[in-house]
Batch of 3 targets.
Target 1
Amino acid sequence: MTEPCETQPQIVAPHPPLTHYYRSEVERAAFVRDIFDRTAPDYDRIEALLALGSGGWYRRQALLRAGLAPGMDYLDMGVGTGILLRQAVRVLGDASRATGVDPSPGMMALARSLPGVRLVEGCAERIPFADASFDFIAMGYALRHIGDLSAAFREFHRVLRPGGRLCILEITRPEGRLSRGLLRAYIRGMVPTLARLSGARRESARLWRYYWDTIDVCAPPEQLMSVLGAAGFQSVRRHIDTPALSFLSEYQGCKSAASQKG
């Protein structure tokens, strides 16, 4: 008698392949790593000038709203240059409790300016830590750059301790045509222009155009929350801090306190 095949989990990509940047989904991860490595030296400078309301104060408040507190062990997925990680350390009061993971060594090289934190190369779909290692996981504007939301969210759930909390910050495409057009013009048009005028590398302008293109076709909030729920998270919600900045989404969730394994 033939044994039934084990059903493989369905891959849930954050957006369709953007083939004008890479030829196939297989090449996506290499493209993303390369463009972030190339633009790392410009990233903080451009982001600080054009933060769209998501600067340090906003990030810190979002972490507090999601439940980050001193004494927690914190994981920053897609840590990049450490913009969100720095705010987490301010809340924690102890850099040794903060860990960052990113597939781009070029970006993480800049995060090493923050003493005491642990930085590890890796990806969201295969987090290089044991089950139940952290009390809090955050991801700041990196969700659109991973390959499989379902696998990543299962990994988030696995490495969280029972009762652990999750905070994902992301830019959501506005629903209104006018708002969408204005945000597109800002991110895809004005930001690349200002990047070039400020002396940034040519690839930095391309990165911000790529940013908008991923935002424009990213999975809607309802789907993201559904995938989080399917991964085991409870109390999943989308928080919008200010109606005027409704494109800034904070996705929150927690792991059941009764969970004994990932």
Target 2
Amino acid sequence: MADFAARAEALDRTDPLAGFRSRFILPDGVIYLDGNSLGLMQHSVASRLARTASKEWAEGVIRSWGGAGWFDLPMTAGDRIAPLIGVGRGEVAVGDSTSANLFKCLAAALHLRPGRSVILAEGDNFPTDTYIASGLAGLVERAELRFLEPGEALSDRIGAETAVVLMSHVDYRTAEIRDMAAVNAAAHAAGALVLWDLSHSTGAVPVDLVAADADMAVGCTYKYLNGGPGAPAFAWIHSRFYPEVRQPLSGWMGHLAPFGFERDYAAAPGARRLVCGTPQILSLAALDEALAIWDDVDLAALFEKGRRMTAFFIEVVETECRDLGLQLAVPRDCDRRGSHVSFRHASGFEIMQALASEGVIGDFRAPDTMRFGFAPLYLTFTEVYQAAVRLRDILVERRWDAPAFRKRTVVT
């Protein structure tokens, strides 16, 4: 049998990203495999929040909008995200939630395609994407929501009435990476736009929106970007649409001259028009500090470590947990797999509860999917191995089969 422990130790010794681990606050006694839902906190974020509250807010008060750069935070934070998604400075706006940014971009897409009425969305996408699309379709008389079901070819569903296709770049359950360039090309050939949700992609897998000829993208910042619970989301629209694009949440902070207090709305140039109301300064300050780490990260090394970690976990689990009821639910090809691994099991919820009770935190997605997220900046291969061993022991000894683990709790 392979000596997985020794292999893990060897991989950790040669890990070029090992130094980043010390910059994070690591919960005692926990192997954290849920960075795909909420990333860990960096030490510097706490001091940045304290400075923002005690100095900029308490002492600087309203002067901090200019003196501390509060007014520009939606764009300065966006500039830190831009290299991670393959776009330029000044092209990404940070603010509001992923849900609100989906609404903005879908509405903008409908406006850009006035002769078309259909939003074509993945049927198995993360629920908020389809909920927002459904809500928008219910408000706009001419809009209609249709679904692209699993196994259906995009080319068979897209047509002359399709205004925009809504897809996730990395599937939240299966971790499958979609071929962004191919999807964009197919949609453009039919005259439609594509809105990409990058929530499970940014900071986890390579993304190059410009090279893929993308139209629009949104994403959250609290997963692999470690921005904190409820951290503001980001939005991007290709600059080719700026002369005509309109987004419906035309708040004063997206105005060309917000302090001119004009009656009529005039959009700010570029991505600033995607900003809506007053920026959430405390959350933005925490996010801006969390994003600073990416200035030092070798992205090629990060993505390679993510591929190795997910492959290693799959290998160990399938060896140690053979014939124990697990079914792999992600692609085996690392080039098609994001930075999380899912296994299906009929008692998946109870198993994840049992794992959490023993210090391994992952998450569960109904009806039977156990997800394990791998954040290469702070996770070690040794922890990955140890998590697989604890999973094996729980399965072999049926520790999950206890009343305490059957109670459904909130899992985000």
Target 3
Amino acid sequence: MDGQTEVTNRTLGNILKCLVKENPRQWENVLPQAEFAYNNVPNRSSGKSPFEVVYILPPLHTLDLVLLPKLPGMSVIVVHLIDKVIDVHGEVKNKLEESTPKYKAIADKHRRFKSYKVGDYVMVHLRKERVPV
């Protein structure tokens, strides 16, 4: 599996454990809270939370999620919002491109390059849960 996916799954599991406490069978009731908490935390690579990447501003309170009434002149605001979205996405892309080589260098410290030739024997470990019968 991808290391990033494993870290994300572990993080989400820890958030759910903290929220369910003594009632682990009620995890689906706290899933929206876990999702909100995870999406509100800034990413180390991009410096922005998923909410900021998608919606430009992080929600400050649950009341921020309530739909606001439409105001006159909304189209001007929408145009500015689109420009802001494009700027934020560009900024996040640049930060991710900057941080990728750092993460690659750290991951490469634990890897070794091995080349194989046609006909070489290799040992393959297959687990039941990863390979269909």
